[in-house]
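WARN no homologs supplied; continuing
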Amino acid sequence: MGSPMDDCIFCKIAAGQIKSTIVYQSETVVAFRDVNPQAPVHVLVIPRKHIEKVVRLEEKDVPLLGELFKAIKSVAESEKITEKGFRVVVNNGREAGQTVDHVHFHVLGGRPMEWPPG
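OK structure emitted
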């Protein structure tokens, strides 16, 4: 029986096994355009390491969180949404809207955001 990473679409994107429009990558993080964008800019930022969801992050992952937010900043700058504003969303679990079991941050911008979001 394979590991969860064997079937994880985001792990496959990070490994280059599934084609995606990559907008940022480092040794630990990959950012790519969402295939079903909810805003003019909709980029997903993921760790290369398979972590199912936010509540599975551990103390040893604190440096990785810093790398994820460094990537988020870089994406916002390259997409030219830092001045007007953007939203970062992370869903945890099915009721929150998480559809892929690999922690990921949505970077949304390019239009006014509504509140409340959900």
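Helices lie at 4-7, 9-14, 62-78.
OK
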